[in-house]
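Severity: low
Component: inverse-folding endpoint
Summary: output formatting inconsistent between runs
Steps to reproduce: submit the following structure tokens with default settings.
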């Protein structure tokens, strides 16, 4: 990922917090020299300095055949916001886009053990819908086993985590403040979120 120095996101903990918050991402692998992608929710774990991404594919999804071949790329890429030049002090300016993105590279490992597959599913349920855990626990064992047989569960040990946060850090404090205030007053959720992240960025 092209990341100018002003927009580098180098703090692993900060990057992990971001991908845990925006954990619906794009999984990319190479199949016969062609990129293939699937959009998936991920469970993001950060333990002992290691970042592990867990998810599953439907078994008929042919991308599952390419998971263990080479490196997987997972892209986390929201929120984002258009920045109009009318917010800048000087008229001689052009539009741009503010956004945050994290690219996670790593080797995928297929989880074959049925018990571990169910544990992975329960971990995802707990992450996204903890209220459903009680209902899930009460479901018949054969139903859950049949469900798990229809998916390919995998973990990706991240070996390279690249982050970019383009939040007007290259602008003057006056311009940055004006953009932040304008986006904060927007009715668009993405623009409001970007304004919140902009407020966390220190002024030059």
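Observed output (run 2 of 3):
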């Amino acid at each position: 990922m092209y990341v100018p120095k002003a927009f580098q996101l180098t703090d692993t903990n900060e990057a992990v917090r971001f991908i845990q918050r925006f954990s619906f991402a794009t999984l990319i692998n190479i199949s016969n020299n062609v990129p293939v992608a699937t959009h998936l929710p991920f469970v993001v774990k950060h333990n002992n300095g290691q970042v592990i991404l867990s998810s599953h594919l439907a078994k008929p999804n042919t991308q599952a055949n390419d998971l263990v071949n080479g490196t997987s790329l997972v892209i986390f890429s929201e929120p984002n916001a258009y920045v109009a030049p009318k917010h800048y002090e000087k008229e001689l300016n052009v539009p741009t886009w503010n956004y945050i993105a994290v690219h996670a590279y790593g080797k995928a490992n297929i989880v074959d053990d049925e018990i571990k597959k169910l544990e992975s599913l329960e971990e995802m349920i707990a992450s996204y819908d903890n209220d459903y855990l009680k209902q899930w626990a009460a479901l018949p064992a054969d139903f859950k086993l049949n469900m798990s047989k229809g998916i390919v569960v995998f973990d990706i040990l991240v070996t390279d985590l690249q982050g970019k946060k383009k939040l007007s850090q290259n602008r003057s404090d006056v311009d940055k403040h004006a953009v932040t205030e304008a986006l904060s007053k927007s009715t668009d959720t993405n623009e409001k979120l970007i304004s919140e992240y902009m407020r966390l960025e220190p002024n030059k």
